[in-house]
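Milestone M4 deliverable, item 7.
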Amino acid sequence: GKKLPNGKTGIICLHSPSRAQGYIDATEKDRCRFQKDGAFISEDFGYLDNRGYLYVKGRANQKFETCAGQRFARDIEELCLQNSRVAYA
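Output delivered:
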């Protein structure tokens, strides 16, 4: 529930109106992933560097729910790596 100093790894929380839309009819378990200030707890671990870039260090869950069904993190990473502007995923 508090911001960490740059470079210190913690749980990634984010504010996103589009992310919140998926939880309108969510179960109580999923709704509790939102903090009082509206931040969504991603269950991913990471840190911000001094320039504000986010580095993801690990995941609590390797599957993601999407409109098209479940997707695995490895599949998403491989797709990202096809972009010439992505050096590491």
